[in-house]
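thought: fold this chain, then report.
action: predict
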Amino acid sequence: AASGFAELGADGKSIKDEAFSALAESGAADEAFFKGTKHVAVECSEHVNDFCDSKAADISALSYSIQTATNAIEADQPTSNTPRKRDLQVPPREWVTDMRTPMHDIVLEEFRRRRSDNSPK
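observation:
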């Protein structure tokens, strides 16, 4: 009695040959996938490295710019000049008092008085 691998398939090949052929095709597909994945990973890695180098250069330039600007700051120097005196024009207390809003009771009383003066008799 022959083993199951010795049996012939539909195309005349043995099942064993078909299995090895399928494994070889699967291995080749896996290898092609691995090569493609590796290629993409290498490209991504190069892109990330270029990006990081670019940002490191930008940070370095910014740091240099900040350092240059910081070094250019000078401490305040005394001028030995006192600001000139000037007269301020402050309004008199009576004028300020006249400008404020009247108290609520006074406004209400005035409103009622005007309303009673205008009512029909």
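thought: worth noting. The mean pLDDT is 82.
final: tokens above.
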